[in-house]
Amino acid sequence: MPMKICAVLRVVPDLVEEIEIEETEIVPFAYIANERDEHAVEEALILKEKAGGSVDVLGVVDEDTASDVDEPLAMAYAKGADNLIKAILSRKTFRRYEVAKGLAEFLKDKGYDVIFTGIQAIDAFAGTLGGMLARCMNLPYIGGVVEVDVQNGTLVVKKELGGGLLGEYRVSTPAILGVVSAERPLKFVPFAKLKKAMKEANIDEVDIEVPEIEGIDVLRYYEPPKPEITLLEGDPEELAEKLVEVLKEVSVL
Amino acid sequence: MNVLVFAEVVENEIQEITYELVGKAKQLGDVTTLVVGNADVSNINSDVIQVDAGEPLPWHYKIVEKVFEKLKPSAILFGNTLTSIDIAAQFAAQLDLPMATMVTDISAKDDGFVATSLVYGGKVLVDLALKSPAVFVVNRGSFPAEEGKGSVGNVEKLSLEELGVSDGIEFVGYIKPEVEDVDISKMDIVVSVGRGIGDEANIELAEELAEVLGGVVAGSRPVIDSGWLPKTRQVGRSGKTVTGKLYLALGISGATEHVEGVKAKNVIAINIDRNAPIFRISRCGVVADVLELVPVLIEKIREAKG
Amino acid sequence: MDVGEMLETYFERLSEVSESERYKQCLQCGTCGGSCPYGIASPFTPRRMILALRAKLIDEILESGAQWLCTACYTCSYRCPSQIPLTDAIIPALRELSLLEGNPPEELAAALMNTARYGNPFRESPRKRDSWTKEVEFEVPLMSKKKEADVLFIPECFGAYHRRCREITKAFAEVMYLLGVDFAILGNEERCIGDLTRLCGEFGLFEDLMEKNIKTFEKYSFNRIVTHDAHAFNALKREYPKMGFEKEVLHHTQFLFENLDKLKDMFNELDYTVTYHDSCYVGRRNGIFEEPREVIKAIPGLRFVEMKRIRENALCCGGGGGGVWLDSFIRNFLKERPAEDRVREAASVGADVLVTACILDVPMFEDALKVTGLEGQLVVKDISELVLEAIR
Fold first, then answer.
1. Is residue A242 one of the residues assigned to a domain?
2. What are the chain A neighbours of B293 within 8 Å (beta carbons)?
3. For the domain C3-103, what is the CATH code?
4. Nearest to C310 by CA among C268, C334, C278, C339
5. Bridge pairing between strands A154-162 and A141-151
6. CATH T-level assignment (fold) for domain C261-391
7. Do A216 and B128 touch (CB under 8 A)?
8. Which terminus of chain A faces fewer neighbouring Cβ atoms within 10 Å, N or C?
């Protein structure tokens, strides 16, 4: 059963570089593909290998980050994605629900059998995209996905439950899947192949109207207080007692 | 105010984070805990609504919706776990409720709430104002579990039929890890040993410490290479990355290759060498002989736990 | 790729490397496999690789993983009677096919992707490349401020970021400072010199790094480059000229030797026994054998002893050619690391200190000390650390 597959690909601040923390906003130095979304793209390509069909990769950006997704999209193309779309949000928002509503409007009549998203992003503090998108589109959703197969037209999904335990689920299509990690390591793309893909790949652009939904606001951003490094010395009895206190502080005890 | 806690249940057992949520919720108002499945709820220190619906599934947001209509809670608390977050996000979207994720603190303010979230890989805290009713997805270990434990109040049992819900996702079964070993990258508490522990016989000491802390033993590469621990327990570049709550490093110097695999929230290091680089990434460093200190530490932890 | 495409891609790459036609003259003598630190474990030694290539069984080599069982130590190339460029061409071109298939060993893949994105394999910010300069008590001049200097010093990635290797960078910089050398660094403008990418078959990335580095070099006026990184030295000396870079390049052992008269006046007595490890890209590949020995022997009080396998026959530390990132992969084939064998050898000749001259050696050997239980008995020092200790 050939499938029409979509994978959402967002960019997030690159934490290898400095980020500036201002009270009202975060100013990153550079953006990078959201790691979980890279796994979502990979899993989408794996599902295409298994079931046949096509993979569209939907880069989700705002005006400021629009060009930052070009390389990650080209990377997906070099790995075998069929179509690249850049969805440009009409405004910046930290509210995932607003993004979900905007994207749902665009995605609803595209006829995708499966839409993959990464399970989380480092900048997500107000909602998660996958589950919210599912409700905006009235589709079933399951997150924590680490493997997807197809049996008799139904998706058979493995979900991570923590501590190495997996759950297996049957999911009818169309559906939205939140990927935690693809079932194989991300495919390596050599430099020359990526540069070639960047020249050759065609990226369609669409504008996404982001609706305004009230109920949650940012009061301030700030740096977490640095944990103090204390070097303890003394006799074992005394040290052990101090350690027990520290273990309580970090709520291990 | 009414507060609803969604219990974290895995393999029909209430998980520790549930008690952490209940403890916090009790500071906010009158608590009801919603438990999906037949787990033993007797230790939950609140009223309970228990729904006989097998293991928690993503579409159980519909159950939360029904209970929400019944209780009209001002705050709904979920654990930040792969099971609960599926439900929380769909529930919030379905009811148009504001939702905060990665939450480490919640307080009531005016008619609503202020929540604190830890984002950008732990580099940034953000304070959020949410209107009531609001949904909170709370990080593990943010609140003490003791307050949430006790004897259960009123337990109301509901069946799925009474709630009348279902969806396109069906649970087939659990798959236990194929490797017989634990995945150290997913463990909350890891006691890790380096060559500084002396010789193989002393691994037992680390294992005893891990046991009293409820964690597992891992090691640096030289320890794995010496065959003292299996390869599955290796932390570092050529091993696994630990991301849990505590990394307790015993006699580990902290080579670059090792430190790359240490992303736990709290690192405590015990090393005889006060210049050991591991101290630079430690919240707390102890300059001591591991073999002298650990036996005493085990005793003290046992005492503390009662 | 099917086998036909693989062979076509492979031989096209091979044809770009001079002397690569020599593989046709392989005598199947087996000297390469007998010389290889991993020969005993490899399903395809260089000899068998060439045999398989002739039989169009290239896919079998790739599936076996043998292309990654190489630390680019250059012993096979050095000893090959037909002078086939095994290290520089036969193996990297096979590795390139693995990269094109998208499935190199994971740690190495990460190192290569980081190098492409950040200009270093460690996933560190390029803006922190000069951070080591803040840990020394003298000023390290920046080219961007100074514009010209006699010596351009290249710390390279390990020397700039790796916690242990930074100590070597600081030591060598201090030696230059104490000698009154007119030197400067590129600081955060520097990026990976790229010998690792070349030896791992990431040719596109290597070319890009060369282009960008040369462009940076051209902004400033200097007479020569000095580096303590043996692989950077090798690439700058042998590969960069192919892209039109023509400045003199010195390894720090050569530079220390050049300044030996001045150093002799500054040396204090040291009282222990040392041995010297001939690093692959200092010794075997680039013929620098005497200079480091002369420097060591000139330090009063030191007792110098030789190991058994020295000069062209020295055993590799296992870190080169991507070896640093292939450890867990190689461990699936082989139990003992070459570095462990080597530190045992150093200890067996009664050395207190093992002196090295390639920046990869120090972390490789220090790790091996822990595994072999020789920690406390033997100490590893780069030659610049030894010199600094003697003149401080």
1. no
2. 236, 239-240
3. 1.10.1060
4. C278
5. antiparallel
6. Rossmann fold (3.40.50)
7. yes
8. N
